[in-house]
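TL;DR need structure tokens for one chain.
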Amino acid sequence: MSDIPETVTDDATAVFVEHRELMFGVVYNMLGTVADTEDVLQETWLSWTARGGGAPLDGVENPRAYLVRIAVNHALTRRAVISRRRETYVGPWLPEPLVAQGEDEAVEDPALRAESVSLAMLVVLESLTPLERAVFVLHEVFGYPHTEIAEIIDRRPAAVRQLAHRAREHVHARRPLYEAHPRVRREATERFVRAAVGGDIAALLEILAPDVTVWSDGGGKRRGAGLRPVHGRDKAVRLLGSYTRRGAGAGLLDLRYRRVNGDDAAVLFQGEEPYAVLVLDLTPDGEQVSGVYVVSNPEKLTHVHRGEA
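>> reply
TL;DR here they are.
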């Protein structure tokens, strides 16, 4: 039997729970999947409770910093597992969307209260090295200074600043700083969905930018999902038309508007089951759609529920 007082383990649990939301946000933005994030948090918990012979708080001046360091390093290790998994993934890979359960519902899920990074931004972050991504997330999203990041990833501050510079340049080159106003995004999403689901080709051609790109992640489990990103308005219209026709053919699609990774988006259901999550990128004027992200892999929609509304 352990001779660690129960109050010590209770205090250690309370500290972990207090910082779990922060750790979830950091790790999810590093990995892009909920399941892997939960696994990393479990590994972090085991490392935390094993510390000091079951007395994690002994000698730890800053538990928050200590826990984030454990979580980040477990996440960096997990990246190698994810990379191997991607080698056999069918079609484009998109991050697992974080979907609020109600259209206008206050966000209560800690996962969704974490610092929100848009789905489109997460796609860009996939092109960074694991260390660049860790530094970018910690500095740009969560506001950690370079000196503190250096301690977390065990690098010199000068090396962290170099990583941060490379990551920031790469991200800004691929992802303009412009972010559409929520009202503009919502109106564009509604116009796009009406046209796509309703099969209104003329309306789709009007709202899609000439150089639009469509990413459809079905993971080989959803017929009609493209095996590679589709570029250009005409090809995009054909792909989207095929996708919605297949969904409608298997049963009436029910539309719900939701917040997805902090942005207004659309979720399609077949009965009670989620069929697809659609997230848009807009042109700087907000008038047209420059990117469409369709996540329909059922394994990535297990956290999505139809709800009452």
